[in-house]
């Protein structure tokens, strides 16, 4: 499968088969993929906490906010909840926080999960003090992003964005639709300004 095909399939999934246990070894393996991400100053300040224990998963779940645009939906039902989490943390002992590093590592993990028949949703909206407390992490560690992981059970489709509408939505069959901007819109051509490059 091409990288483009894997990227197309690697959507944010929010409903999973909770009975499908995600092995810790698989999570270790996908984190190993993230080790190859580029890193500003090569500081590699991100650490990972793997959560697979049922009661710990329940505690992490309680700190998360799901799908802000789906006002009618309260998040996954118990049997749809993620079977595991990877909590990405910044280790301040290793250097300054870099958001780009976080994104690069998170997406490599997302792609690697998809390659293994799994999926995730990156969750940035979480109760940080509570997650910090229940994780029992040291003072130098700060949670950045929670990857909610499992065997996806929902259908997610990408569609062209219309009229600048960025909100994802669900149809009556509960298929999740994600609008994406077109290539024409995002690649700048003649729209920069009228001044020739040589005269700027
Ligand atoms: C940094 C970041 C934070 C996110 N935080 C949340 C979140 O708190 N809750 C949620 O349900 N989805 C969250 N998402 C998922 C986005 O909503 C999702 O990426 C977007 O709707 C596009 O869908 P796609 O990933 O399938 O392309 C986050 C994604 C990123 C990259």
Protein architecture, described:
- There is one protein chain.
- By secondary structure, this protein is α+β, with helices and mostly antiparallel strands.
- The chain has 2 domains: 3-153, NADH Oxidase; 155-200, putative fmn-dependent nitroreductase like fold, CATH 2.20.180.10.
- It has helices at 3-9, 24-34, 54-61, 99-115, 128-135, 183-186; strands at residues 46-51, 84-91, 119-123, 141-150, 156-160, 169-170, 176-180.
- The strands form 2 sheets. Strands 1-2-4-3 form a 4-stranded antiparallel β-sheet, sandwiched between helices. A 3-stranded mixed β-sheet has the order 5-7-6, with no helix packed on it.
- Helix 2 crosses helix 4 (99-115).
- Flavin mononucleotide binds next to strand 3.
- Flavin mononucleotide binds at residues 11-12, 14, 65-67, 121-125, 156, 168, 178.
């Amino acid at each position: 499968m091409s990288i483009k095909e894997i990227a197309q399939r690697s959507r944010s999934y929010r409903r999973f088969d909770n009975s499908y246990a995600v092995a810790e070894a698989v999570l270790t393996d996908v984190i190993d993929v993230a080790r190859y991400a580029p890193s500003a100053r090569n500081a590699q300040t991100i650490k990972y906490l793997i959560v697979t224990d049922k009661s710990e998963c329940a505690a992490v779940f309680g700190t998360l906010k799901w799908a802000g645009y789906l006002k009618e939906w309260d998040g996954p039902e118990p049997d749809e909840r993620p079977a595991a989490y990877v909590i990405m943390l910044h280790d301040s002992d290793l250097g300054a926080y870099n958001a780009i590093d976080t994104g690069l590592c998170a997406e490599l993990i997302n792609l690697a999960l998809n390659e293994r028949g799994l999926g995730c949703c990156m969750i940035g909206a979480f109760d940080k003090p509570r997650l910090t407390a229940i994780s029992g992490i040291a003072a130098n560690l700060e949670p950045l992003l929670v990857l909610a992981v499992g065997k996806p059970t929902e259908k997610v489709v990408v569609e062209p964005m219309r009229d600048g509408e960025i909100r994802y939505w669900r149809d009556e069959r509960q298929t999740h639709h994600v609008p994406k901007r077109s290539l024409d819109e995002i690649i700048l051509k003649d729209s920069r300004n009228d001044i020739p490059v040589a005269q700027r």
